[in-house]
Amino acid sequence: MESIVSKTLDNIDIQILDLLQKQAQLSNIELAKHVNLSPPAIHSRVKRLEKEGFIKKKVAILNQQNLGFDLSCFIFISVNIHQEEKFEILEKSLESMPEILECHCITGEFDYLLKIVNKNRSDLEIFTRKLYKLGITRIQTSLALREIKNSTVLPICK
């Protein structure tokens, strides 16, 4: 029988997670120096944190402006769907669209909030047409004029 994995984090686990979320490229040797453990102990802890689901994935965050994605938008959408299987089809379609960076099912006046990027207004128009083809009944788009803060760092260390 498989043992139940503890979801309890100690102070060293928290420090490791905080360091990795800020600098995912840190080696086990560098992490070990920061938290005063040996590199093999760090390796074991990181593997456990991955296995237990505290670390979902490690990624490189790209500069969207340098890559030509000059239009960031927040799109609120409403749907007129009442059948579970149609919701699943809609959500799988939204999940598969590369323009969508984030998609949230929300409460309130709208059903979903999308964070998207496009290269220009023409791409936004094409994207909006794709949304209407999915059976979306109402769309409200807000263009981001400038970004004040964009972070993936969770406030786990106070």
Which properties best describe this structure?
158 residues; alpha+beta; four-stranded antiparallel β-sheet; 5 helices; 4 strands; 37% helix; 19% strand; elongated
Low-confidence stretches: 1-5
Strand order of the largest sheet: 2-3-1-4
Q: What share of the residues does DSSP label as strand, in percent?
A: 15-25%
Summarize model confidence as the mean pLDDT: 92
Please tally the helical runs, counting DSSP H or I stretches of 4 or more residues. 5
Query: Helix content range of the residues, please?
Result: 25-40%
Write down the oligomeric state.
single chain
Helix-strand sequence: HHHEHEEHE
Shape, per Cα inertia axes: elongated
What class do helices, strands and sheet pairing give? alpha+beta
Biggest sheet architecture: 4 strands, antiparallel
Number of strands: 4
Terminal-residue CA separation: 38 Å
User: What is the gyration radius calculated from CA atoms?
Assistant: 20 Å
Helices and strands in order:
Layout: H1 11-22, H2 28-35, H3 39-51, E1 71-79, H4 84-96, E2 100-105, E3 112-118, H5 121-133, E4 136-143
Antiparallel strand pairs: 1-3, 1-4, 2-3
